[in-house]
Amino acid sequence: MYSFPVSTLQPGMVLYDDLYTSDNTLLLKANTLLTEEKIQLLKDNSIDHVTLAEPLEINITHYQYLYNSEHFKEFCSTYESSVKAFKNLIHLFETGLEVNLDKFLDLRNNIINAVRNEDQLIDYLYYMMPDEKQLTYIHCFNCGLLCYTFAKWCKLSPKELDLLTIAGFAFDIGKIKLSDDLLWKDGKLTPEEITQLQRHIHMGYDLIKHKNLPPIITTVLIMHHERRDGSGYPAGLKADKIHPFALLAGIADIYEAVTHPRAQRAALTPFQAIGIFEQQGFEKTGVQTTKKLLSRIAQLYLDRRVTLSNQLNGRICEIHSDALSRPTIFCNNQLLDLREHPELDIIRMS
Question: What is the pLDDT of residues 39-80, one digit of tens each?
């Protein structure tokens, strides 16, 4: 890679890095083939220099790009130290000591300051390699970050962003009282084990009930597994009986869990995760909010390389609002609309 002045760019050159505007809006993605129009776009946004790809760097995968990126390496360092501090804070709930919620928000801010924007945070979290010894804490930490991001996408107030961050950090806290053998069992849970797992809500409530937290934190913890059609637990609440923050937390909980590896399965791709919501029905977690958030996630991966379940490789070139998990792929010099190929799935993000 090498720096090059925009004033002398030529069509056919290829960007090495993602390119952002002064307000951290993504302007052009890495591996973009420059055209006259895109060069003019750079000039219109007062971009002076860009980083171009050497011949051997053209068409490297996003995974390779990230793990060669100093920015991603710095993020990983910040993330690892933040998870360690988060674990120590979570254990305060098991003591009689006061819990300072501002310290949780400081950890969130450390992460937010380590990325360009929330879109990049979603992407970085997906490519993180979790420490198997800390899966429960990582899940709780990531859920807080996702709740913050989703709330920001929904344009909630700063105070609501803080409350949803803390609620996201805390709603699965009861799982620290369950054994790893149960949480990360390699295989299908028995009915008895499912019942035991569902008790994490009661265990979480016992941990926070004397901590003088804002009431919404307790509400989200108790309700984050409730579903609008009454199929959730622990109370089988329906529709407007469920707080909207709890429904948003439920979306974060599912998305985080399925896009990271577990003992019984590999991590699913974002499109496989979106497919789960589509199969179950968006109405379970609220059609408008669920579709808005998942559409935003799907759009993040436009132009990204993927591998299909038939082992063919391609590039995402169109997202469909009527089937977010079934984009059109440019593959083998032809367009493949996955809406017309239900036998195929996106099994790897390259």
Answer: 999 999 999 999 998 887 887 888 888 988 999 999 999 999
In terms of DSSP H, where are the helices of 212-286?
Answer: 215-223, 244-258, 270-280
- State the CB neighbour count (10 A cutoff) for residue 339: 12
d(CA 124, CA 349): 13
Q: What's the chain's average pLDDT?
A: 94
- Torsion 339-344-345-347 (CA) sign: negative
As a whole number, mean pLDDT of residues 71-99 equals 95
pLDDT digits (tens, 9 = 90+) for 210-245: 999 999 999 999 999 999 999 999 999 999 999 999
Show the domains of the chain with their CATH numbers.
2-59 (3.90.105.10), 64-267 (1.10.3210.10)
From residue 263, give the alpha-carbon distance in Å to each of 182, 184, 258, 266: 11, 5, 12, 8
- Reference 130, options 142, 119, 115; nearest CA is 142
Q: How far is CA 70 from the centre of its chain?
A: 21
User: Which phi-psi region, left, alpha or beta, contains residue 227 (left: φ > 0; alpha: ψ -120 to 50)?
Assistant: beta
Which class for 187: exposed (0-12), middle (13-18), buried (19 or more C-beta within 10 A)? exposed
Mean pLDDT of 310-338: 96
Q: Is the pTM of this model over 0.90?
A: yes
| Phi, psi for residue 180 in degrees, rounded to 5 | -65, -30
E runs forming strands in the chain? 2-5, 19-20, 26-28, 49-52, 305-308, 313-320, 323-331, 334-337, 346-349
Is the confidence at residue 126, as pLDDT, over 90? yes
Q: What is the 3-state secondary structure (H, E, C) of 120-158?
A: HHHHHHHHCCCCHHHHHHHHHHHHHHHHHHHHHHCCCCH
Distance CA(162)–CA(148), nearest Å, equals 7
